[in-house]
Design the sequence.
């Protein structure tokens, strides 16, 4: 199709008016078949980013290690407060409900997670985690974008990947399957202005230096724009309907993370075609006043995630949902002079859900053997990703990660 510069600018203006990230020309292609843990509901994955660099030593506390107690004078959690898991480690005292999930075999804790040649910059390490590639953004799409391309290449479902929150993570970046993104599903709607909407419906576009001039677009280009409009509207309508109709089995706090997970539960139950969900809990860059700040974050995490897991428990969506929590890096072992900790390297991840084979995985880094004051990672985070990709979603992980990584026995048969 030959389009001159002016026509191209008109088309670009129309697309700019569609503020939904997910809006694009899509047919009614059915999702590719995928394994299910129970019933007919397909498996889904929920990504929970703990942004800022979670202090793993305050989340999973090596209370019996003298090196920990010597390094943490003001930020340490004393043994009597720890929710013990064994004679060496225990959960932060605020994680009472998640500890119960662990004891019930529904939470797998992976220790010492990181990657070779670690980076202590938020932005650079974030890119490594979100692309699963040491080159970061220069390597191309995010790891979820690559996963979607490998798992459901023919799908054009606008709700396939959903982020609930303010900032869309790079992990979801895809040239062919961009995510739907919104802060609240009930407010998610096609946001083109009335003039653009009318122009698209009538067959033209407003452009040319702000003048109101209706130009007839070539038929194929115009139909593309109309499909963008139709699919954007259909996507937002199905999401709003699922959110409004959902009735919870558990009471969520009026907390940003809790409400985002409530929305995940609603969209899962509504069966709108979503396979990947993304949410975020930020505030983990605890250079100062760590004790109070991290304690608050742990309370929010425990209440929000546990309520979500309770809400979906026993349902088909619950049986087929996994949550993976991660942070871009851990914190340094020794606290700083501001009652906090600085950027570090390795830290824990966890995977939760009814299909999980709960317990400890990986190996806790030795606090007596540090690399320039940092923990040395014992598990590559891409092993966890590979396990989720291959064992949970049934996709050859090398197609997504480019390299073969050892799989972890995180899931029940």
Sequence:
């Amino acid at each position: 199709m030959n389009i001159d510069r002016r026509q191209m600018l008109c088309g670009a203006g129309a697309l700019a008016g569609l503020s939904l990230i997910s809006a694009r020309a899509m047919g009614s292609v059915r999702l590719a078949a995928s394994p299910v843990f129970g019933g007919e509901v397909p498996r889904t994955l929920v990504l929970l980013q703990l942004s800022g660099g979670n202090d793993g030593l305050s989340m999973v506390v090596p209370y019996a290690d003298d090196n920990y107690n010597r390094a943490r004078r003001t930020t340490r959690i004393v043994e009597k407060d720890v929710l013990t898991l064994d004679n060496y480690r225990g959960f932060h005292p605020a994680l009472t409900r998640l500890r119960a999930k662990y004891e019930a075999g529904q939470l797998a804790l992976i220790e010492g997670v990181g990657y070779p040649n670690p980076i202590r910059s938020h932005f650079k390490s974030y890119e490594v985690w979100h692309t699963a590639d040491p080159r970061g953004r220069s390597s191309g799409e995010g790891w979820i974008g690559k996963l979607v391309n490998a798992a459901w290449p023919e799908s054009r479902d606008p709700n396939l990947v959903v982020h609930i929150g303010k900032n869309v993570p790079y992990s979801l970046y895809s040239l062919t399957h961009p995510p739907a993104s919104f802060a609240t599903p009930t407010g998610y709607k096609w946001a083109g202005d009335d003039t653009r909407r009318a122009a698209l419906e009538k067959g033209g576009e407003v452009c040319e230096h702000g003048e109101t001039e209706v130009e007839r677009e070539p038929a194929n280009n115009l139909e593309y724009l109309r499909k963008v409009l139709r699919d954007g509207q259909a996507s937002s309508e199905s999401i709003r309907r699922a959110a409004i109709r959902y009735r919870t089995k558990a009471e969520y706090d009026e907390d940003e993370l809790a409400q985002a997970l409530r929305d995940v539960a609603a969209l899962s139950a509504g069966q709108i075609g979503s396979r990947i969900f993304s949410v975020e809990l930020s505030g983990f860059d605890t250079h100062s006043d760590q004790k109070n700040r991290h304690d608050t974050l742990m309370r929010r995490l425990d209440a929000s995630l546990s309520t979500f897991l309770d809400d979906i428990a026993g349902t088909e969506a619950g049986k087929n949902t996994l949550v993976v929590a991660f942070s871009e890096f851990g914190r340094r072992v020794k606290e700083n002079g501001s009652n906090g900790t600085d950027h570090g390297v390795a830290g824990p991840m966890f995977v939760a859900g009814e299909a999980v084979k709960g317990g400890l995985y990986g190996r806790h880094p030795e606090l007596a053997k540090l690399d320039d004051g940092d923990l040395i990672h014992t598990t590559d985070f891409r092993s966890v990703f590979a396990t989720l990709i291959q064992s949970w979603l049934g996709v050859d992980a090398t197609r997504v990660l480019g390299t073969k990584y050892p799989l972890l026995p995180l899931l029940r048969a």
